């Protein structure tokens, strides 16, 4: 029974050890464990009910303030004149103008929209309707603008922001970029329902609004995706119903540890992504000098492939169930980003023979479309490297 897993007060150390080797799929234990490992749920189980109630109320407040109210203001524009005073009309250049914010938000929204529609195109899940559509938003009484309508009506030319900072054009590997849903034609669901990708879009939009310093950077969708999928497929319907709010908070917690990778101005600082990319090579140098020298000699720089591996926590390199399995281990490691570097190292060492035999072009292709799909082998190797530190 699951009660052997946790008493009233959860022992985090034990939980981490259990989850490190992979969380069983049965019984919806994974979603629960992730909520604890990502510092969302308190360790004292008796607090869960009141804590969750509070967090979910906070989230629905965000929905009201950031999605419903701007939508109502927009809907009222045609109906009542009182909104359109001299101080605040759509052409007002004043930076405090609500309209100014509205148009700025639209740029972010269009970028998010483009990315979330492409989430895991080889899986139908994100295109399917959720069993628990957001009632606040889909209320048939409402004639305000939802995010979806907002995207459809935004005629502003969205600037396609190319945010890949390491100067490498290949951001998604060929095998995984099957764009089965061109962004202009996606399934239209019946009234009153919404697809899972629309929920992810809301989560990211609210995150961007609450974190203006980082807003939205391409790739964040790949980090929300697996968390949301895990929560939204939870066999326990009470948890499943609140997948959106719970995902939002878990994503926010994970991003608070990972956000430096997304902030360009920190690239070269100790906490930035450059430092992490270089630590993959310095660790490799320790573990397998010959392989390290080969990559150096071919001038294959870590940013050519580890940028994506590290920033997106490997979510683009493997199929979703395998990504989820890797994340069990990552989330349960106290120093998850250090373990991620070990995993990257293990991935290199496992294909050392190919790399040693290959030329620059062959090796770049290997690294950008990683050939080993068995994540168990990779995690075992990473653990072995960790034990031999």
From TrEMBL:
> SMART domains under this entry?
TBC (SM00164)
Major place of residence? cytoplasm
Subcellular location per the Swiss-Prot or TrEMBL entry: Cytoplasm; Membrane
Q: What is this protein called?
A: TBC1 domain family member 13
What is the species of this protein? Anabas testudineus
Superkingdom as given in the UniProt entry: Eukaryota
Function statement? Acts as a GTPase-activating protein for RAB35. Together with RAB35 may be involved in regulation of insulin-induced glucose transporter SLC2A4/GLUT4 translocation to the plasma membrane in adipocytes.
Question: Which GO cellular component term is one of those annotated?
Answer: membrane
Q: Establish whether keyword Transcription regulation is in the entry.
A: no
List the keywords (alphabetical): Cytoplasm, GTPase activation, Membrane
How does the record describe its quaternary structure? Interacts with RAB1A and RAB10; in a GTP-dependent manner.
* Gene Ontology BP annotations: intracellular protein transport
Q: Which InterPro entries does UniProt cross-reference here?
A: Rab-GAP-TBC_dom, Rab-GAP_TBC_sf
Locate the Rab-GAP TBC domain: which residues? 24-334
Record-level Gene Ontology MF annotations: GTPase activator activity
């Amino acid at each position: 029974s699951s009660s052997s897993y946790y008493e009233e007060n959860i022992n985090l150390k034990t939980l981490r050890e259990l989850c490190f080797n992979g969380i069983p799929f049965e019984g919806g234990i994974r979603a629960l464990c992730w909520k604890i490992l990502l510092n969302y749920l308190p360790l004292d189980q008796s607090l869960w009910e009141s804590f969750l109630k509070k967090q979910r109320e906070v989230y629905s407040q965000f929905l009201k303030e950031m999605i419903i109210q701007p939508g109502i203001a927009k809907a009222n524009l045609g109906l009542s004149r009182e909104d359109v005073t001299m101080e605040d009309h759509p052409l007002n250049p004043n930076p405090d103008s609500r309209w100014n914010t509205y148009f700025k938000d639209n740029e972010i929204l269009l970028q998010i929209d483009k990315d979330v529609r492409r989430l895991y195109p080889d899986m139908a899940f994100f295109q399917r309707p959720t069993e628990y559509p957001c009632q606040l938003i889909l209320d048939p009484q409402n004639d305000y603008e939802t995010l979806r309508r907002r995207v459809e009506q935004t005629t502003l030319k969205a600037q396609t922001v190319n945010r890949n900072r390491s100067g490498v054009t290949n951001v998604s590997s060929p095998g995984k970029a099957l764009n089965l849903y061109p962004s202009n034609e996606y399934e239209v669901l019946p009234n009153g329902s919404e697809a899972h990708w629309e929920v992810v879009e809301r989560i990211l939009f609210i995150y961007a609004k609450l974190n203006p310093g980082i807003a939205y950077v391409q790739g964040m969708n790949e980090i929300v995706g697996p968390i949301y999928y895990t929560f939204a497929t939870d066999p326990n319907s009470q948890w499943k119903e609140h997948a959106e709010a719970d995902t939002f908070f878990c994503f926010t917690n994970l991003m608070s540890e990972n956000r430096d990778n997304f902030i360009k101005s920190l690239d070269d600082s100790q906490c930035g992504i450059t430092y992490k990319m270089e630590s993959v090579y310095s660790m490799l140098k320790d573990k397998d000098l010959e392989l390290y020298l080969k990559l150096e000699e071919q001038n294959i720089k870590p940013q050519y492939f580890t940028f994506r591996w590290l920033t997106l926590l490997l979510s683009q390199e493997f199929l979703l169930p395998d990504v989820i399995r890797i994340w069990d281990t990552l989330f349960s490691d106290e120093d998850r980003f250090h373990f991620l570097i070990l995993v990257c190292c293990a991935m290199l060492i496992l294909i050392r023979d190919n790399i040693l035999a290959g030329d620059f072009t062959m090796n770049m292709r290997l690294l950008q479309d990683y050939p080993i799909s068995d994540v168990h082998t990779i995690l075992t190797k990473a653990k072995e490297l960790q034990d031999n530190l």
